[in-house]
Each structure stands twice: as structure tokens, then as C-alpha cells.
Amino acid sequence: MALVEPAFKLKIANLSLFVLYVNTTDMVQLKKQLDLRFNKTQVFFSNTPVALDLSAIANFNVSPDFAGLMSFMLDHGMHATGVVGGSAEQREAAVQSGLGLFSDTIVRPAVQTASIPTTAPGIIPNAEDNQPELPGLGLAIKTAAGEPNNCNILDPDTQLQKPASQVLPTFRPTMIINKPVRTGQRIYAEGANLVVLGVVNAGAELIADGDIHIYAPLRGRAIAGAQGNESARIFMQSLEAELISIAGCFKVFENGIPENLRGKPVQAHLDCSDLIIEPLLS
To answer: Residue 214, Cβ neighbours under 10 Å: how many?
Structure first.
């Protein structure tokens, strides 16, 4: 008698998720700053799940207007999925609004650049088993071409803050991908650098806790220093990207890539809080 495949499986998985750190219960102020911050990058947040971290307002005697905030976020392509932290009253209000509850406070580990050993190449991890927690956003960005910043909008005193680093990661050998990365494919080098030898197609995504080296055109997204490593860098043979990010500081090329950088070998790195994209030295 043939075995019948089960209709479902229930597993615990670490999924890729943005976290919005809510520092105020003033929804007018929060929505105004979110609108300023994300109105130019709405395409990037396309049906993106977002968790709300309420740790900073847990001692407030008021709950946010979750229904209004969820509707507002949806207008920017962000789907609020649940809350982290908060008081018992705030978490109950979140449940009543249809949000889920994350049991633990999210801790962002401090990451140093992983070394690049000459060991055997890594493999593409299963997306269900290895997913990054991407850093918070809100840093200044500029390019070597002098393109205007479109991220330094929030006042430094009112930016959405990231929690203090508490956990050191496990460093792993460099992951090497020796074939093209297809549209819709996501590769995460957890606790390691990432080397890609083939083209990264539009709609594909590279994520690494360390550096990213791409010896082919980058047409998708590259996110280095995913756990907050501000010394991470991205190197690519040809800049044709949709997005580049280092330690949460990102640039979306929604208006095209500057002529002096488009299709050229470039590197991206942080200078204080500025994302610098510049040609590689010959």
C-alpha cells in the first residue's frame, strides 16, 4: 500500500524580516517620519513583512493605534506581522488588531569581518534554515558621483534606534557560489564572507554578515554586514544593481545608476554613516 504524503508540515524557521523600532506612541509623529523616510523607496518595500519592536515604549501607559499604523504601513508596501516586546496591555492591543506576538526581544549581534580562508567552497543554504535579521534603516547615503542623499531624513535624536550588541556570531568559512544567481533566489552567508563567480540577475538577493565579492555583473541586490558590521564592503565587476546595502545603510537605484559608475567595477563601503560607492582602483 502506497504511503500518503502528509498535507502539511509545521516547522520553526528563521525568516528574513525587517524590524521597525517604535520609539513613540505619537502616531502623527511616527507616520510623518516614516512617510519622509520611505516615500522614495516604496518599490523596495513590496509586500514586505515587518515586525514592530515595542521595547522602547513598554513603560508607556498607552498603546499605539495599531490598526491605523498597519494601514499606513500597508500604503508603503509593508505588512506588519507582529510585535516584539511591549507591555502586557500593548501586546493585548496588538493581538486585538490582528498582529502576532514574537516571544523574545530581538538581539542584534555585533559582527566583525570574517576572514577569507582558502578552504573548500560553501553551499547555498536552504532559505528556510538560514535567514538574516536585517539591520534597521535610517542612515545617510551618498555616492562618489555626488548623487543627493535620499536617506538622511530623520533627525539623529529621533531615528529608530537599534539595540545594543550583546552576542558574538559564529564565524564560518567563506561561501563561494560558482554559478549564476537566478531571479527570486536568495543566498545568505551567515557569519561569513560571500564570493559569487556568476552573474547576479535582477530580482536575486545576496546577503552576507561579512564582505561580498561579485566577479560578474550585479543586477539584483547585495546586502553586506547584514548583522551590523559597518566595516563590511561590497566589490563587484559591473554595477547594474537594484540595491546595495551595508550595515543597514542602503541605496536604491530607482532613478538609475550614475554614468561614471554604471557597468563599471566598483566597491561600496561606509565612511562614518555615509555609504560610498566608488570605482575600483586600476
So the answer is: 26
Higher-confidence residue of 145 and 224: namely 224
Assigned fold of 156-279: Pectate Lyase C-like (2.160.20)
CA distance 105 to 155: 25
Q: Which set of grid coordinates corresponds to residue 256?
A: 538609475
Q: How far apart are CA 21 and CA 56, in angstroms?
A: 8
Regarding the domain delimited by 18-102, which CATH topology (the fold level of the hierarchy) does it fall under?
Alpha-Beta Plaits (3.30.70)
**pLDDT for residue 76:** 81
Q: How many CA atoms lie within 13 A of 163 on its CB side?
A: 20
- Residue-wise pLDDT for 220-245, tens only, equals 999 999 888 999 999 999 999 988 99
Reported as half-sphere exposure (CB side, CA atoms, 13 A), residue 78 has a value of 22
Beta carbons of 72 and 41 less than 8 angstroms apart? no
